[in-house]
Design a protein that fits this description.
Radius of gyration: 16 Å
Largest sheet: 7 strands, mixed
Strand content: 15-25%
Number of helices: 6
Shape: globular
Structural class: alpha/beta
Distance between the termini: 28 Å
Strand order of the largest sheet: 1-3-2-4-5-6-7
Length: 218
């Protein structure tokens, strides 16, 4: 049975196939920056899909983002169900249902990427988080983890980063967390002019690409 195409943005490499990467957007919603990131992944040989968790709504400022993000978290079970559906669709579209996927989450999306890997360990082999964390039970996870964090982040305390890294290591998972000097939240997103850091963003991209291209760890 074919999985229905969920709301979102799909980017496919010129070859028409590739390893699947699920991209979970930040609290801004599925904006042009997220779409461009998916396109960039496709140009690097991956099939990338970003579900639209806000269903057409996009925040332009922090107040709107807080409102939309709070509404999503208030209905988090529905959000998780939609993400699981998106993961199934992506696996089918990439034609690699038996190999699992990578999940990349930005800020708000990082929480849901971590949750997906814990809830569906057979589906997710790799997780990348950008300046976002989450709790939960990682004992059943089979994923390897890569994290990109700012060294001065008003939205994500270092204690949360340390706590996540500790929990993942305690669960026996491969973990590599990077902290980028002189950066704050959103340092990877070029449309956030006050926060974007070109050097850090380029380095984080290179590290992410290398991580995704490695053989999945089980």
């Amino acid at each position: 049975m074919r999985t229905a195409h969920p709301d979102g943005y799909l980017a496919v490499p010129a070859a028409g196939s590739g390893s699947p990467v699920l991209v979970l957007h930040a609290w801004w919603g599925l904006n042009d920056t997220t779409r461009a990131f998916c396109t960039r992944l496709a140009e690097s040989g991956f099939v990338a899909f970003a579900p639209d968790l806000y269903h057409g709504k996009v925040a332009e400022n922090v107040a709107d983002a807080e409102r939309l993000g709070s509404a999503l978290d208030g209905n988090h079970e529905q959000a998780k169900a939609e993400i699981a559906e998106a993961a199934r669709f992506l696996q089918e579209r990439a034609g690699q249902a038996d190999r699992g996927i990578a999940a990349i989450g930005f800020s708000l999306g990082a929480y849901y990427a971590l949750d997906l890997a814990a809830a569906e360990p057979e589906r997710v082999h790799s997780v990348v988080v950008f300046y976002g964390t989450g709790g939960g039970d990682f004992s059943g996870s089979k994923a390897a983890y890569l994290g990109h964090f700012a060294d001065a982040d008003e939205f994500e305390p270092q204690s949360n980063v340390v706590g996540l890294e500790t929990a993942l290591r305690r669960a026996g998972r491969p973990v590599t967390f990077h902290r980028y000097a002189g950066t704050g939240h959103w340092f990877f997103e070029p449309d956030r002019a006050q926060a974007f850091n070109q050097a850090a963003a380029s380095l984080a991209w290179d590290r992410t690409l290398a991580f995704l291209r490695r053989t999945p760890t089980s």
